[in-house]
Amino acid sequence: MWRAGLATGLLDGLYACGRAGLADVNPVQIGHHVASGLLGRVAFAGGSTSAMLGLMLHFLIAFGIATFYVLLSSRVEQLRRHAVLSGLVYGLVAYDVMNCVVVPLSAALPIRYSVVSVLLGLLNHALMVGLPVALIDRRFRALALRRDSATESNVHTIVSFVKRFTAHGGARRNSSTDTGICLEG
Known about the structure:
By secondary structure, this protein is mainly α.
């Protein structure tokens, strides 16, 4: 789960920095904007402290988005079975929830949206948020299943060994030296 949150935070952050760079906005200002969701206008005068708060909030949100998907996919098998489509759709939903619910309810200054910015935002969230979360979830869920299966197999092997060992009388001690080393089979 943490891998999906980290990947999402990094990818979405890189997109935001790249897009902001094209508009002559520096990364500190991006951090200020994110922090303004919590602090309001004060965030823009907060220097590096509020920029770091914005970065931490950005990753907190990314981890929240990833966690929600992982919990949902643990209950809805179709999300795991169709991870690519599910991830793309989940990214679109995440964009809508952020921009239609979270941001309006926050203290952030209102954002002016253009058709291009909305389309780029939707594309970014589909490809850089939802898709990585779904693919990472599918990958690590499969690894966990294999690990659990291997653990079950190892436990079965150990139980079989113990049963065979105890069926043959177990270890016998040499009474003359009592070292605990099995000298007879």
